[in-house]
Write a structure and sequence with these properties.
With 146 residues, the chain is an all-alpha fold. It has one domain. Helices cover 80% and strands 0% of the residues. The chain is built from five helices and no strands. The protein starts with 6 loop residues before the first helix and ends with a helix. The protein binds fe (ii) ion (FE2) (2 copies). One fe (ii) ion binds next to helix 1 and helix 2.
Length: 146
């Protein structure tokens, strides 16, 4: 599998954490308003942090990659925007005490995760220099642990 300090290893660990919160979020649909809102806020905090870390700690360090690789990164960033807008819609529903529709979000998140895990992160681990990877993984370790 992956070496201990590769980008893939650290980000897969954070995906697993976010996935656990998505399970809690699904279960919260049948709970009361307060519990639903608390779990939603935890989910939103963690997914925003995950995207922020991907964009600011990883993607911003990838300028030297070729055009095809940079396009793959741009597409992932567009996904982030789309996902955040879906999350804002769900937040509106929760605040208005409507039952949130999570299935589409879960589907899009799963596709996004699969793309990053099977293609993008392994590509970055392969294409970035050792120095770039050390600098990125140090930042990831400090930001993902908070
Ligand atoms: Fe992402
Ligand atoms: Fe990710």
């Amino acid at each position: 599998m992956f070496a201990k300090d590769e980008i893939s290893t650290l980000m897969l660990r954070d995906h697993a954490k976010v996935e656990g919160i998505i399970v809690e979020l699904s279960k919260s649909v049948d709970k009361g308003f307060k519990a639903r809102l608390d779990i939603f806020n935890k989910f939103k905090w963690n997914i925003e942090k995950h995207f922020f870390v991907e964009e600011k700690c990883i993607f911003s360090q990838c300028h030297n990659l070729n055009e095809a690789d940079l396009t793959a990164i741009s597409n992932v960033m567009l996904d982030h925007k789309e996902i955040l807008s879906m999350i804002n819609q769900i937040e509106d529903d929760i605040i208005q005490k409507k039952k949130p529709e999570l299935e589409e979000l879960k589907k899009v998140l799963l596709e996004h995760k699969k793309y990053e895990e099977s293609f993008l992160y392994p590509l970055l681990d392969k294409e970035l220099s050792s120095m770039q990877k050390v600098s990125i993984t140090e930042r990831l370790k400090s930001h993902l642990s908070t």
